[in-house]
Amino acid sequence: MNTRSKQEDKELDQLERLIRETPMEVDLVNRTMNKFESTRYTKQPESFRTSKNKRQKVMMITASAAMIFSLIFISSLVSPTLAATIKQVPVLSSIFKLAGDLGLQTADEKGLSTKLNTSATHDDFTLNVSEVVYDGTRVSIAIERPHKEDEKETLMERINNIELLINDAPVKSIGIVMKPGKDNDSAIIELSDLRNQGGSPFPEQFDLTVSATIAGIQGPFKIDIPVNKIENYLTLQPNVSREYKNIHFSVEKVEFTPITTGLTTRVVLTDNSIFTLPLLTMGVDIFDDQGHKLKLIGGDGWNATNGNIHISDRRFQPFESIPKTITLKPYIHLFDEKEMWVYQMNENGDPKIQYIPELEVTLPINLQK
Hints:
Layout: H1 6-21, H2 29-40, H3 46-50, H4 52-55, H5 65-74, H6 80-87, H7 95-98, H8 102-109, E1 114-122, E2 125-134, E3 139-144, H9 155-158, E4 159-166, E5 169-170, E6 176-180, E7 186-191, E8 205-214, E9 221-228, E10 234-236, E11 240-244, E12 247-256, E13 261-269, E14 283-288, E15 296-303, E16 309-316, E17 325-333, E18 353-355, E19 361-364
Antiparallel strand pairs: 1-2, 2-3, 3-7, 4-5, 4-8, 6-7, 8-9, 10-12, 11-12, 12-13, 13-16, 14-17, 15-16, 17-18, 17-19
């Protein structure tokens, strides 16, 4: 027999409508309804019945700002049993957790990132910084906006310009990159220093100011966030080189962190020619001792003389565990013979590459720093 009161039915209808109308990464509707039904007709333990104050506190679900404020408002309307049910709904994962970057996912899971809730608001538009991590190879910043049903452009499309300051001074980096977040309302800003190109590294700790302009909004959004470097696990400077024809390829540094595998290489054209296709887009793949290839997540290049020397910093996903050896395989892209800058594509829709086996390097890994 259903002994639910009309008031409780009304509360359930309100909650179900709220959850269904809020964008979420997982479907919590049936889970919440079923959980309430099961707890409604099951005898509560004594500790549950006597914890009246705890039952009346509603856990805020962080699917979006709209959900947060709606649940705070609803908490004063629902019954203690329904409030306790809401409290058991899992909190949704962070931007780092769902962005598709194994290193950032690891940072979130292992508690290496700094959780933030710092925001700026102009003209009813709020920009929020929710998470940051710095491992020495890259600084990653998670940004987001509250979800709106009528919003057609993604957050990345709305951002016109980003400027960064470190300790109130303009940041000196290879470049600022913006990557997709977990959905259209989020994004990830990344930057790397110039330490491998003759510049200064970022400090171990610093205050980072993010200044962003949003299309249709007057004035920049300025947000100050603290940044702390996590410990690097291992850095190698192997001083190993290979030569093939007019190409001198050397490995200057390999960095292993829980978040990133960093690779710095130098290519010199020994005949003093300048870089042209296909050498202009030369890449390197990293394989472990079992033949597994790391996924490339970003990279920057710097031409020291605007001619025959090219230094590259590449960032790959981290190793789950550091292997006994790694193999670096330089390659060139294959381009269309009739149209410049058009890649030849394979059956999977990816650009075709050709390895240069004469430049291949295998490095033993010494686990002592």
